[in-house]
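User: ok so my PI wants both of these folded by tonight, can you help

Assistant: No problem, let's get them done. Here's the first:
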Amino acid sequence: MAKLDQKRTTLFAALASAAVVGIAWATDALRRDKAQRQIHRTLVDLLLNALTADDPVTARHSRRVADLSYALAESCGMDSRELSTLRVAALLHDMGKIDDRFFYIIHSRKPLSPEQRNEIKTHPHTSAHILEPMEPLHPGIQGIVSSHHECWDGSGYPRGLDHEGIPLAARIIAVADAFDAMTQPRSYKEPLSIEEALDKLSEGTGKQFDPALVRQVENPEVLSRWIEVARRGLEDERHHLAHPSPAEAVHEVAGAESE
């Protein structure tokens, strides 16, 4: 009996030790995972800051597009890994515009020349190239970013992809990008109302946009989140138009000089 009790005591001690080691390992793994996620968020923030250092308008636009895209993607049933990749892609989809040659094109108030249009069409490919080191962390991010100006009917760029040949995340970003552009004011234009913007999305159904995604925007849960993002953005943009930062004032001068 004494030997049995000793074996039990030894077994319990071993199990207790294993539990302590397991808890310590799990705690350490959790700590390392948290640290890795923090490093990843910092990297994304650094890239976004590099893109928008002299362009706070684009910074705000990118964050809204990410919020809009996430809400729509979540309603489409994307899993957490896909959602993470989509959000990073939405934040950095215009990374290629960091090139100085795009500055006056982006902020011009005049219609673009054919040469400028051809030039601006290179930015999705450039964005994808810049984000190549992130591909192991976010598989497919290059394809998403390079395709966010493709159209459902094949009339987009840079490769003329169509229908499901365009990554779902890119199709989502395209709808969100257009909605934000329409619903936010700029110094040279007034925004469309949310209702007008939704009508424009409907007009683009089957041409520029995936019909299923445009219908999904009208889902009450998605629409309420989109309205919230648009209204919050409207307040921010109105405020910054009334009280421009030095960088935004530079954009105003650049826009006036291009006229």
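One down. Here's the second:
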Amino acid sequence: MELCIFTEPQQGASYDDQLAQASATERLGFDGWFRSDHFLAMDDADPMPGPTDAWTTLAGLARDTRRIRLGTLVSSATFRHPSILAIQVAQVDAMSGGRVELGLGTGWFAEEHAAYGIPFPAKRFGVLEEQLEIVTGLWSTPVGEYYDFAGEHYTLERSPALPKPVQPRVPVIIGGAGPRRTPALAARFATEFNIGFRSEDTIAGTFDGVRRACEQIGRDPATLRTSVALPMVVATDDAGYLRRLAAIGADADSFAEVNIAGSPDAAIDKLLRLRELGADRVYLQLVDLRDLEHLELIAAEVLPHLH
């Protein structure tokens, strides 16, 4: 099972903060570094120094790292025109030497759209579906040929469909717990299906649903990677555990109910259960990205038991 680090820079992080965590992620042997794509801090977090754009950040990290996978979990379809997104991701893929992955979703955080004047239509699933078709269509169009698309939300005429990514197929991550439309989209377009912040029972049922969606369109379910994203807080003693929970504003009474929490041994047990449920990859959400000692503890005490 692959283990990737996943963080939330909108909660207050500079590029240098993110670079420090990504560099440690690479040095310590994790498989990838992924970030959210948000422009507004949530809850009562200190937002300073302000938001950073996900794909601008990943472009910098593409040049400042050498091995780890890099991507979004997930970009919002409301933020970028799909043609521009396809160009951005292809360029960052080239800058990284072929290490980029695109997570794409409908977007959900209405307040950040209002704060920055970004349109937030009530119905967004059709926008996401067209974006997925356009992005993957642009990348897969042979060099020298043109790509056309006419949909409800977007129209492209004689696009040269350039540039191409370095990877023959950039991994596309689609996620969610919806019972019908999301699994169907994942079966059509995704290389990975992700579910986050849910119980083990829900994860198991959702994985079963996306496998059925693959079978319904004649796709081998084994060709679709399945993954889980969960917040993680571990420590070697109670005081350290409570301190790390307090740093991210988490509730000590309920945090461990669903998340990866407690001692390193407890974290290993949880991750092994997720592997048994079919998770090929787990994203360890570390909200306090400046706590590099936390990352080092996970690398030393947890990572060797899962790789």
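Residues 2-305 form a domain with the TIM Barrel fold (CATH 3.20.20.30). The chain is about 40% helix and 20% strand. Good luck tonight!
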